[in-house]
Design a protein that fits this description.
The protein has about 220 residues and is α/β, with parallel strands linked by helices. The protein contains 9 helices and 5 strands. The structure holds flavin mononucleotide (FMN).
Length: about 220
């Protein structure tokens, strides 16, 4: 199993990168593969007007690393992880641009759009955020947006890790230890309990297997 971590900060040795590296440590310790990709290195062009920008063959004509990023690295991966600083209460522009440009590949004008749509669905996802402010409301919009995008992609969104820090690497001093949380997310990204239910999702009334076992041991009325 492989995760790709999209690193959105222009500071390549900053706080969100530290969270991404901790995630990678956890993934490797759990025996899975991980690739960290610096978005500002691989993607330089902004989304344009597809009607004027698309080539005659329907393909995106922006000459940067986006096509290879999406088709060669991201589609074959099993989890997409987003590592971003909080910028003006949202994601960094490079990450938003990454999402915006998917439209060029999923829309019907792109010859292989079905391959792209099939290739995107069915993964797991997670979010790593670094922010100066500790106020939980400051990250709500970002978390909500990434969860909605995950739902739209048919990804199982596993967890958000938020670390506080402003100076480069300062996140390691956050007493809530977000680096440990990112490491743990890396370890469990493919095994962690996922709980976005539909009303007809088949499930037990107990969330955790240990609780189910305890109820079984306690007898038939234990969980009423
Ligand atoms: C353009 C910009 C906008 C920012 N906006 C916010 C913000 O809205 N809220 C906040 O808590 N921190 C904000 N910050 C601080 C960063 O989120 C914080 O320094 C973060 O740790 C940077 O992550 P990095 O080291 O990965 O770049 C902003 C920083 C910059 C440069």
């Amino acid at each position: 199993m492989k995760s790709v971590v999209l690193c959105a900060s222009p500071r390549v040795d900053g706080n969100s990168r530290a969270l991404a590296e901790a995630f990678a440590e956890g993934s490797i310790s759990a025996g899975s593969e991980v690739e960290l990709i610096d978005l500002s290195e691989s993607v330089s062009g902004l989304l344009r007007d597809c009607r004027t920008c698309r080539g005659e063959d329907g393909r995106c004509s922006i000459k940067d690393g986006y096509s290879s990023l999406l088709l060669d690295s991201l589609l074959p991966a099993d989890a997409w992880i987003y590592a971003t600083p909080l910028y003006y209460y949202g994601m960094a522009a490079s990450l938003k641009n990454f999402f915006d440009r998917i439209v060029c590949y999923q829309s019907a004008s792109y010859p292989d759009h079905q391959v792209v749509i099939e290739g995107i669905r069915g993964k797991r996802s997670g979010l790593l955020v670094s922010a100066e402010e500790k106020n939980q409301a400051s990250t709500l919009g970002l978390v909500n947006q990434v969860q909605e995008i995950s739902r739209y992609f048919k990804h199982e969104f596993v967890e958000t890790v938020i670390g506080s820090g402003n100076r480069r690497g300062e996140v390691r001093f956050d007493p809530t230890d977000p680096l440990a949380a990112a490491r743990s997310l890396g370890e469990t990204i493919f095994t962690a309990h996922h709980s976005d239910y539909d009303m007809d999702s088949e499930r037990s009334n107990a969330v955790w297997p240990e609780s189910r076992d305890a109820a079984d041991a306690e007898g038939p009325y234990a969980d009423s």
